[in-house]
Amino acid sequence: MGIATLALPALAAYVIIVWLILPVFTYFRDPKGLRKYHNLSPLSGMTDFPYLYLNSQGFRSKSITEAHRRLNSPILRIGPNNLSFGDVKAIRDIYGHSTPCLKDLKYSITGGPHPNIFDVVDKPKHSEKRKRLSAAFAIKNLVDWEFKVADTTARLLAAFDKRCTEPLPANRTTPAKADLTIEFNHWINLFTIEAINIIALSSRLGVLEQGDDLVTAQRVDGTTYQTHYRKAQNQSAFATSHFIWDYGNFHLLAQLSQIFPKWRQIWRNAEPWRDVIYHQAITRLDRYKNGEKLDDFFTSLMENKSGEPYNLEFGEILGDVGAVIDAGADTTAIALTQVLELLIRHPAHMETLRDEVDAVLDDEVVAPFEKVRNLPFLRACLDEAMRIIPPTSAGLPRRTPPEGAMIMGEWIPGNTSVSMTAYTTHHDPTIFPAPEEFQPQRWMDPSERKRMEPYFIPFSTGGRGCIGRNISYLEQTIMLASLVHRYEFALPSPDWKLKRFEAFNLLMGEMPIKIWRRTPGNPLVS
Ligand code: HEM
Ligand SMILES: *[C@@H]1O[C@H](CO)[C@@H](O)[C@H](O)[C@H]1NC(C)=O
Ligand SMILES: *[C@@H]1O[C@H](CO)[C@@H](O)[C@H](O)[C@H]1NC(C)=O
Ligand SMILES: *[C@@H]1O[C@H](CO)[C@@H](O)[C@H](O)[C@H]1NC(C)=O
Ligand SMILES: *[C@@H]1O[C@H](CO)[C@@H](O)[C@H](O)[C@H]1NC(C)=O
Ligand SMILES: *[C@@H]1O[C@H](CO)[C@@H](O)[C@H](O)[C@H]1NC(C)=O
Ligand SMILES: *[C@@H]1O[C@H](CO)[C@@H](O)[C@H](O)[C@H]1NC(C)=O
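^ thats the input. predicted complex w/ protoporphyrin IX containing FE below
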């Protein structure tokens, strides 16, 4: 008798008991009293599969927001042990500085052998890492990073100058296909990739001159190969997001998916991401060991301000390098693509912005930060775009402490996964009237801004909020001001739509545009 004849029925019995009978049994036994909450789907109380399905549909935070509204329910059960909150009162309790909740198990599952600043759960360990990196992110240093951002901006503009077209003829509303010479999302990703690698690692990849994302990756054994930086990062995020929402079965589902050639290919495309980070980190470490003195984030992982070394293990350094270059590129690229799209679609706002920027700039090509950092309408446009479409829309999962926690005045039992999506918060009509409309002017009245700010959470909030917020504003402010000062833009057509897929961040498809110079002149060269 073959092993298979015994193993198959055993496997079938296992699947039936663990995936069917136990969940149903636990659902009715209801040990945590979660059955009183509305279910996202009729099966959500028993299994994570409805959520996995929702995720595969593309924009889960928007769907969750709609479900809260449809069911008129501020608390939704989105999995057997998982609650989504739909009322802004929950933000402070789940994410605020004094929350007793920690990052949920998800972060440990996707984290590497050395937890990094982004996925580490333990509070003291996180504080230690955060303190080390904060030195590099402090506002004082922002000015030091400006020249890196300005230089990278000039390199992008040089590439755009080369691809400029003739002005759109007055008798046309849509550009000729041949004039859509720039895929903006592609180029702006090359910009944010280049910017974060320069700021964090003093590494100039050259992707802006190449026009594509081909870079060197390196295996642990030292061998190197060429790979596509952005594609690897993007596919890694895309693949992970499909299976992560059943934490316990993530590795199993990821393995099983490889039965299908399509998924085998996706995982294969994702694999080099690890080796890209490794190459970037090891190359920078070698420069450090060779005594090169560089001003970047990496230095603050190696030594304190008095030059006293921390002597961290390489695994820990590698983890935090990965966290910063992972978190620091596609998010800002999404924000910039989004704000440009919205401005092209709202010519009156584009004009207001241009007038504001033109008034402070002379013949500079790259906007000096000092001149544009406090322009209120510029900042309003950036914030309004991140409000409508938060680049990280996701309900960032947190876990209640073993003894339970009060959330929104409601006692939630221990070890429960809780979250509230930024998308839901940003689309709450009691906070942001006409939430679907792009209205930068809503941010212009200082008292209104003050009222809305606690509920404006694209960078999350509290102790685990984004550490790169100010760097991102630095990049976005300089880039947007420089772009609208120098160019005019057109989308393919009025009914053209941006494609999105929500992984951890809200991944975007292509945005082909036509651009031309506002005042003809000599192209930049680089
Ligand atoms: C528009 C751009 C950005 C957005 C929307 C954004 C959003 C976020 C959000 C929502 C979190 C919390 C994640 C969670 O709770 O799981 C976060 C954390 C983080 N972000 Fe950003 N981010 C942006 C840009 C950046 C940049 C430019 C950097 C690096 C320079 C960066 C580095 C980080 C790091 C290291 C963390 C983890 C912080 C911690 O746990 O202490 N981010 N970001
Ligand atoms: C638009 O105007 C140009 C001349 O300015 C002319 O050559 C062209 O045929 C016109 N196109 C259309 C679609 O009317
Ligand atoms: C990133 O993933 C999304 C979702 O699959 C896809 O639409 C987009 O084209 C991808 N971009 C790149 C550069 O791979
Ligand atoms: C809900 O939380 C449990 C663990 O508490 C986890 O296994 C599961 O994957 C989570 N599901 C979702 C949809 O977040
Ligand atoms: C750097 O570390 C040394 C040794 O731990 C300490 O004496 C010094 O005060 C630290 N300097 C700063 C600026 O933190
Ligand atoms: C929460 O987890 C802790 C440690 O894993 C366990 O001792 C406790 O019984 C759990 N509490 C609940 C309510 O599940
Ligand atoms: C960002 O800058 C503001 C001042 O504009 C400062 O209060 C804040 O602490 C800075 N945030 C981070 C994360 O560095």
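The chain has a mean pLDDT of 95.
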